[in-house]
Amino acid sequence: MGLIYEKDGDYDKALHYYEQALNVKSASKSEIVTVHNNLGFLYYRRGNCKKAREHHKKAFELVDESHPNWIQNKAFEDTEPFFLCLFFLLSSSTLVVLSICI
Fold this sequence. Notes:
InterPro entries: TPR-like_helical_dom_sf, TPR_rpt
Distance between the termini: 29 Å
Oligomer: single chain
Keywords: Membrane, TPR repeat, Transmembrane, Transmembrane helix
Number of strands: 0
Largest sheet: none
TPR repeats: 1-28, 33-66
Pfam family, one: TPR_12
CATH topology: Serine Threonine Protein Phosphatase 5, Tetratricopeptide repeat
CATH architecture: Alpha Horseshoe
Transmembrane segments: 81-101
Number of domains: 1
Order of helices and strands: HHHHHH
């Protein structure tokens, strides 16, 4: 549901459903990784680089070595939000802020 609302541009509802998905006890590890990854991109789209980084980091920590292709594929998929965030940070006058997304 979160992905549907996100694609429709309703980020508040998307966030709500993604957060609900994290609380589903029967969710598999790969599903939790996907939700954290989706939350990361959602936060990038909303301009919250710090929260985006937290969720991408959590997704990365949960993926074990048996899924290297998943990490490699995700590294090149949907990178536009990251670069938009990076551009925003570079346009600010302080380098300290840059560390949020790196």
